[in-house]
Specification:
By secondary structure, the chain is of the alpha/beta class. 37% of the residues lie in helices and 16% in strands. α2 (62-74) links the parallel β4 (45-47) and β5 (81-86). Pfam families: Aldo_ket_red. This is Aldo/keto reductase.
Length: 318
Protein backbone atom coordinates (compact mmCIF):
# COMPACT_ATOMS: atom_id res chain seq x y z
CA UNK A 1 0.00 0.00 0.00
CA UNK A 2 1.19 3.50 -0.80
CA UNK A 3 2.06 5.84 2.06
CA UNK A 4 1.64 9.53 2.81
CA UNK A 5 4.69 11.26 4.29
CA UNK A 6 3.78 13.48 7.23
CA UNK A 7 7.30 13.92 8.63
CA UNK A 8 10.71 12.48 7.73
CA UNK A 9 10.16 9.51 10.03
CA UNK A 10 6.36 9.36 9.97
CA UNK A 11 4.51 7.77 7.08
CA UNK A 12 0.85 6.78 7.23
CA UNK A 13 -1.00 4.40 4.96
CA UNK A 14 -2.94 6.12 2.17
CA UNK A 15 -5.95 4.18 3.44
CA UNK A 16 -6.25 4.61 7.21
CA UNK A 17 -8.55 2.28 9.12
CA UNK A 18 -11.09 4.20 11.16
CA UNK A 19 -12.13 2.49 14.38
CA UNK A 20 -15.03 4.62 15.57
CA UNK A 21 -17.47 1.69 15.90
CA UNK A 22 -14.99 -0.88 17.21
CA UNK A 23 -16.26 -2.45 20.41
CA UNK A 24 -19.74 -0.91 20.04
CA UNK A 25 -21.39 -1.20 16.62
CA UNK A 26 -18.87 -3.94 15.89
CA UNK A 27 -18.08 -6.65 18.40
CA UNK A 28 -14.53 -7.17 19.58
CA UNK A 29 -14.35 -10.33 17.47
CA UNK A 30 -15.46 -8.61 14.28
CA UNK A 31 -13.26 -5.59 15.00
CA UNK A 32 -10.25 -7.89 15.35
CA UNK A 33 -11.13 -9.61 12.06
CA UNK A 34 -11.20 -6.26 10.27
CA UNK A 35 -7.91 -5.12 11.76
CA UNK A 36 -6.32 -8.47 10.86
CA UNK A 37 -7.51 -8.16 7.26
CA UNK A 38 -6.43 -4.53 6.91
CA UNK A 39 -3.01 -5.27 8.38
CA UNK A 40 -2.54 -8.34 6.16
CA UNK A 41 -3.30 -6.18 3.12
CA UNK A 42 -0.45 -3.83 3.98
CA UNK A 43 -2.28 -1.19 5.99
CA UNK A 44 -0.57 -0.04 9.17
CA UNK A 45 -2.36 3.14 10.31
CA UNK A 46 -5.32 3.27 12.70
CA UNK A 47 -7.42 6.31 13.60
CA UNK A 48 -9.29 6.51 16.90
CA UNK A 49 -10.26 9.11 19.51
CA UNK A 50 -10.94 9.43 23.20
CA UNK A 51 -14.45 10.70 22.33
CA UNK A 52 -15.44 7.57 20.35
CA UNK A 53 -18.23 6.35 21.07
CA UNK A 54 -19.12 8.55 24.03
CA UNK A 55 -22.52 9.31 22.55
CA UNK A 56 -23.57 5.66 23.08
CA UNK A 57 -24.46 4.38 26.53
CA UNK A 58 -21.58 2.18 27.63
CA UNK A 59 -19.58 3.09 24.53
CA UNK A 60 -17.05 5.47 26.07
CA UNK A 61 -13.43 4.35 25.53
CA UNK A 62 -14.48 1.25 23.54
CA UNK A 63 -12.77 2.27 20.30
CA UNK A 64 -9.39 2.97 21.91
CA UNK A 65 -9.78 -0.04 24.20
CA UNK A 66 -10.49 -2.47 21.35
CA UNK A 67 -7.67 -1.10 19.19
CA UNK A 68 -5.23 -1.27 22.09
CA UNK A 69 -6.19 -4.87 22.87
CA UNK A 70 -5.62 -5.89 19.25
CA UNK A 71 -2.21 -4.20 19.08
CA UNK A 72 -1.15 -5.87 22.32
CA UNK A 73 -2.46 -9.34 21.47
CA UNK A 74 -0.93 -9.26 17.99
CA UNK A 75 2.32 -7.78 19.37
CA UNK A 76 2.57 -5.24 16.55
CA UNK A 77 3.14 -1.92 18.32
CA UNK A 78 6.39 -1.32 16.46
CA UNK A 79 4.71 -2.12 13.12
CA UNK A 80 1.70 0.20 13.29
CA UNK A 81 0.95 3.92 13.39
CA UNK A 82 -1.57 4.95 16.03
CA UNK A 83 -3.50 8.21 15.68
CA UNK A 84 -5.80 9.35 18.45
CA UNK A 85 -7.55 12.58 19.31
CA UNK A 86 -8.43 14.55 22.43
CA UNK A 87 -9.92 17.86 23.45
CA UNK A 88 -13.44 17.04 22.27
CA UNK A 89 -16.30 18.83 24.05
CA UNK A 90 -18.24 16.71 26.51
CA UNK A 91 -21.34 15.02 25.11
CA UNK A 92 -23.02 15.76 28.43
CA UNK A 93 -22.51 19.50 27.98
CA UNK A 94 -25.52 21.05 26.17
CA UNK A 95 -23.38 24.08 25.30
CA UNK A 96 -20.67 21.87 23.76
CA UNK A 97 -17.99 24.06 25.35
CA UNK A 98 -14.40 23.65 24.11
CA UNK A 99 -11.99 21.64 26.26
CA UNK A 100 -8.52 22.82 25.34
CA UNK A 101 -6.96 23.97 28.58
CA UNK A 102 -3.65 22.29 29.38
CA UNK A 103 -5.36 20.35 32.17
CA UNK A 104 -8.07 19.06 29.83
CA UNK A 105 -5.67 18.14 27.02
CA UNK A 106 -3.37 16.34 29.45
CA UNK A 107 -6.30 14.50 31.02
CA UNK A 108 -7.46 13.22 27.64
CA UNK A 109 -3.93 12.25 26.66
CA UNK A 110 -3.38 10.24 29.84
CA UNK A 111 -6.76 8.51 29.59
CA UNK A 112 -6.08 7.61 25.95
CA UNK A 113 -2.66 6.13 26.71
CA UNK A 114 -4.07 4.11 29.60
CA UNK A 115 -6.99 2.85 27.52
CA UNK A 116 -4.76 1.99 24.56
CA UNK A 117 -2.26 0.30 26.92
CA UNK A 118 0.54 2.26 25.27
CA UNK A 119 3.35 4.52 26.45
CA UNK A 120 2.97 6.85 23.45
CA UNK A 121 1.01 7.42 20.26
CA UNK A 122 2.50 8.33 16.91
CA UNK A 123 0.21 11.26 16.15
CA UNK A 124 -1.99 13.14 18.62
CA UNK A 125 -4.68 15.41 17.22
CA UNK A 126 -6.84 18.00 18.91
CA UNK A 127 -10.39 17.04 17.97
CA UNK A 128 -11.73 20.62 17.95
CA UNK A 129 -10.43 24.17 18.33
CA UNK A 130 -11.21 26.93 20.82
CA UNK A 131 -10.66 30.16 18.94
CA UNK A 132 -11.16 32.17 22.12
CA UNK A 133 -7.99 30.63 23.54
CA UNK A 134 -4.58 31.99 22.45
CA UNK A 135 -3.04 29.55 20.00
CA UNK A 136 0.33 30.01 21.74
CA UNK A 137 -1.08 28.42 24.89
CA UNK A 138 -2.28 25.38 22.94
CA UNK A 139 1.02 24.98 21.07
CA UNK A 140 2.95 25.18 24.36
CA UNK A 141 0.85 22.33 25.75
CA UNK A 142 1.35 20.17 22.66
CA UNK A 143 5.07 20.89 22.70
CA UNK A 144 5.32 19.62 26.26
CA UNK A 145 3.48 16.41 25.36
CA UNK A 146 6.00 15.71 22.61
CA UNK A 147 8.99 16.51 24.80
CA UNK A 148 7.60 14.19 27.49
CA UNK A 149 7.41 11.35 24.96
CA UNK A 150 3.64 10.93 25.08
CA UNK A 151 3.27 11.48 21.35
CA UNK A 152 5.77 11.61 18.52
CA UNK A 153 3.96 14.30 16.54
CA UNK A 154 0.89 16.50 16.79
CA UNK A 155 -1.85 17.68 14.49
CA UNK A 156 -5.36 19.08 14.57
CA UNK A 157 -8.86 18.16 13.48
CA UNK A 158 -11.60 20.60 12.46
CA UNK A 159 -9.35 23.65 12.67
CA UNK A 160 -9.41 26.49 10.16
CA UNK A 161 -6.37 26.96 7.97
CA UNK A 162 -5.84 30.44 9.41
CA UNK A 163 -5.51 29.01 12.94
CA UNK A 164 -3.10 26.34 11.73
CA UNK A 165 -0.95 29.00 10.07
CA UNK A 166 -1.03 31.09 13.25
CA UNK A 167 -0.06 28.08 15.37
CA UNK A 168 2.85 27.06 13.18
CA UNK A 169 4.10 30.64 12.88
CA UNK A 170 4.30 30.81 16.67
CA UNK A 171 5.87 27.33 16.86
CA UNK A 172 8.62 28.29 14.41
CA UNK A 173 9.37 31.54 16.21
CA UNK A 174 9.61 29.82 19.59
CA UNK A 175 11.20 26.57 18.38
CA UNK A 176 8.15 24.54 19.42
CA UNK A 177 6.58 21.48 17.83
CA UNK A 178 4.60 22.26 14.67
CA UNK A 179 1.28 20.88 13.49
CA UNK A 180 2.13 18.31 10.81
CA UNK A 181 -1.30 17.30 9.50
CA UNK A 182 -4.95 18.24 9.56
CA UNK A 183 -7.94 15.91 9.79
CA UNK A 184 -11.09 17.32 8.19
CA UNK A 185 -14.13 15.98 6.37
CA UNK A 186 -13.48 15.34 2.70
CA UNK A 187 -15.13 13.05 0.21
CA UNK A 188 -16.16 13.07 -3.44
CA UNK A 189 -19.64 14.00 -2.22
CA UNK A 190 -20.13 17.68 -1.46
CA UNK A 191 -20.77 18.03 2.27
CA UNK A 192 -21.36 20.82 4.76
CA UNK A 193 -21.28 20.96 8.57
CA UNK A 194 -25.08 20.89 8.51
CA UNK A 195 -24.89 17.59 6.62
CA UNK A 196 -23.63 16.07 9.85
CA UNK A 197 -25.68 18.35 12.12
CA UNK A 198 -22.49 19.74 13.67
CA UNK A 199 -21.42 23.29 12.92
CA UNK A 200 -18.04 22.74 14.62
CA UNK A 201 -16.86 20.51 11.75
CA UNK A 202 -14.66 21.63 8.89
CA UNK A 203 -15.78 20.24 5.52
CA UNK A 204 -13.69 20.55 2.39
CA UNK A 205 -14.75 23.05 -0.25
CA UNK A 206 -13.02 24.89 -3.10
CA UNK A 207 -11.77 27.73 -0.90
CA UNK A 208 -10.40 25.39 1.78
CA UNK A 209 -8.87 23.14 -0.89
CA UNK A 210 -6.96 26.08 -2.36
CA UNK A 211 -5.80 27.12 1.12
CA UNK A 212 -4.37 23.66 1.80
CA UNK A 213 -2.67 23.54 -1.59
CA UNK A 214 -0.94 26.80 -0.71
CA UNK A 215 -0.13 25.61 2.81
CA UNK A 216 1.19 22.27 1.50
CA UNK A 217 -0.07 20.38 4.54
CA UNK A 218 -1.19 16.72 4.31
CA UNK A 219 -4.88 16.02 4.90
CA UNK A 220 -6.36 13.06 6.75
CA UNK A 221 -9.88 12.82 5.33
CA UNK A 222 -12.63 11.55 7.61
CA UNK A 223 -16.10 10.52 6.34
CA UNK A 224 -14.18 9.96 3.11
CA UNK A 225 -16.85 7.59 1.76
CA UNK A 226 -19.79 9.86 2.61
CA UNK A 227 -21.52 6.94 4.26
CA UNK A 228 -21.12 4.85 1.09
CA UNK A 229 -23.67 6.92 -0.84
CA UNK A 230 -21.78 6.49 -4.12
CA UNK A 231 -21.19 2.75 -3.74
CA UNK A 232 -24.72 1.46 -3.08
CA UNK A 233 -25.75 1.00 -6.71
CA UNK A 234 -28.36 3.77 -6.73
CA UNK A 235 -29.72 4.93 -10.07
CA UNK A 236 -28.01 7.81 -11.81
CA UNK A 237 -30.41 10.44 -10.48
CA UNK A 238 -30.26 9.09 -6.91
CA UNK A 239 -34.04 8.78 -7.08
CA UNK A 240 -33.93 5.52 -5.11
CA UNK A 241 -31.64 6.85 -2.39
CA UNK A 242 -32.14 5.28 1.04
CA UNK A 243 -33.31 7.41 4.00
CA UNK A 244 -29.90 7.10 5.70
CA UNK A 245 -28.28 8.81 2.69
CA UNK A 246 -30.87 11.57 2.18
CA UNK A 247 -28.56 14.09 3.84
CA UNK A 248 -26.22 13.75 0.84
CA UNK A 249 -28.95 14.36 -1.75
CA UNK A 250 -28.26 17.58 -3.65
CA UNK A 251 -28.06 18.77 -7.23
CA UNK A 252 -24.26 18.89 -7.00
CA UNK A 253 -24.00 15.34 -5.69
CA UNK A 254 -26.31 14.01 -8.41
CA UNK A 255 -23.95 15.63 -10.93
CA UNK A 256 -20.85 14.20 -9.24
CA UNK A 257 -22.41 10.74 -9.01
CA UNK A 258 -23.17 10.85 -12.73
CA UNK A 259 -19.57 11.81 -13.51
CA UNK A 260 -18.34 8.97 -11.29
CA UNK A 261 -20.54 6.43 -13.07
CA UNK A 262 -19.40 7.73 -16.47
CA UNK A 263 -15.74 7.29 -15.54
CA UNK A 264 -16.30 3.86 -14.01
CA UNK A 265 -18.27 2.60 -17.02
CA UNK A 266 -15.62 3.90 -19.41
CA UNK A 267 -12.61 2.55 -17.49
CA UNK A 268 -14.23 -0.46 -15.78
CA UNK A 269 -13.56 0.96 -12.32
CA UNK A 270 -15.52 0.25 -9.14
CA UNK A 271 -17.38 3.36 -7.89
CA UNK A 272 -16.38 2.71 -4.27
CA UNK A 273 -12.68 2.53 -5.19
CA UNK A 274 -12.72 5.50 -7.54
CA UNK A 275 -14.48 7.67 -4.94
CA UNK A 276 -11.69 6.94 -2.46
CA UNK A 277 -8.98 7.37 -5.08
CA UNK A 278 -10.34 10.85 -5.72
CA UNK A 279 -8.78 11.62 -2.33
CA UNK A 280 -5.76 9.31 -2.16
CA UNK A 281 -4.53 10.14 -5.67
CA UNK A 282 -5.38 13.84 -5.53
CA UNK A 283 -2.68 16.43 -6.15
CA UNK A 284 -3.47 17.70 -2.65
CA UNK A 285 -1.54 15.30 -0.42
CA UNK A 286 -4.05 13.22 1.51
CA UNK A 287 -4.95 9.89 3.07
CA UNK A 288 -8.51 8.61 3.37
CA UNK A 289 -9.87 7.28 6.66
CA UNK A 290 -12.10 4.34 5.79
CA UNK A 291 -14.75 2.65 7.88
CA UNK A 292 -16.92 -0.42 7.50
CA UNK A 293 -19.70 -2.23 9.30
CA UNK A 294 -19.18 -5.44 7.34
CA UNK A 295 -16.06 -7.26 6.15
CA UNK A 296 -17.31 -7.11 2.56
CA UNK A 297 -17.33 -3.31 2.75
CA UNK A 298 -13.75 -3.21 4.01
CA UNK A 299 -12.62 -5.61 1.30
CA UNK A 300 -14.26 -3.39 -1.32
CA UNK A 301 -12.64 -0.24 0.09
CA UNK A 302 -9.20 -1.82 0.16
CA UNK A 303 -9.35 -2.27 -3.61
CA UNK A 304 -8.66 1.46 -3.83
CA UNK A 305 -5.05 0.65 -2.94
CA UNK A 306 -4.63 -1.58 -5.99
CA UNK A 307 -4.68 1.10 -8.72
CA UNK A 308 -4.33 4.83 -9.32
CA UNK A 309 -6.48 7.54 -10.85
CA UNK A 310 -4.74 9.97 -13.17
CA UNK A 311 -4.89 13.72 -12.63
CA UNK A 312 -7.17 13.99 -15.65
CA UNK A 313 -9.54 11.34 -14.28
CA UNK A 314 -9.73 13.12 -10.94
CA UNK A 315 -10.54 16.39 -12.72
CA UNK A 316 -13.42 14.65 -14.51
CA UNK A 317 -15.13 13.89 -11.20
CA UNK A 318 -15.76 17.46 -9.97
Amino acid sequence: MNNLQLKDDLKVSKLILGTVNFGTGLSKEHSFEMMDYYFAKGGNTFDTARAYCGWIKGGEFKSEETLGQWVKERNVRDKVIIITKGGHPSFEDPLFKPRLSEEEIRYDMEVSLKTLQMDYVDLYLLHRDDESRPVSEIVDTLDRLVKEGKTRYVGVSNWTVSRIIEANKYAKEKNKVEICSSEIQWSLAECFPRTFNDETLICMNKEIYDEYMKLDMPILAYSSQAGGVFSCGYNRRLEDIAPKHMKYLSVENVIRYGKLLDLCEKKNYEPSSAALQYITDNKLKAAAIIGASKMEQLMESMKAAESLLTEDEIAQLV
